[in-house]
Amino acid sequence: MKAFITVIGNDKVGIIAKVSTFLADLNINIEDISQTVLQGKFTMIMAVDTALCELPFEKIAQELTRKGEEIGTEIVIRSGEIFDAMHRI
Amino acid sequence: MINLSRNEIIETVRMITEHHFDVRTITMGISLLDCISDDKNVVANRVYDKITRYAENLVETGDKIGAMYGIPIVNKRVSVTPISLIGASSLGYLEIAKALDKAAKATGIDFIGGYSALVHKGATEYEKVMLKTIPEALATTEKVCSSVNVASTRAGMNMDAIKEMGALIKEAAYLTKDRDSIGCAKLVVFANAVEDNPFMAGAFHGIGEADKVINVGVSGPGVVKTALELIPDGDLTAVCETVKKTAFKITRVGQLVAQTASKMLNANFGIVDLSLAPTPAMGDSVAHILEEMGLEQVGSCGTTAALALLNDAVKKGGIMASSHVGGLSGAFIPVSEDIGMINAARAGSLTMERLEAMTAVCSVGLDMIAIPGDTSQEVISAIIADECAIGMVNNKTTAVRVIPAYGKGVGDEVDFGGLLGTAPVMPVSKLSPAKFINRGGRISAPIHGNKN
Question: Which residue range is the domain that position B114 belongs to?
Answer without folding.
Answer: 29-191
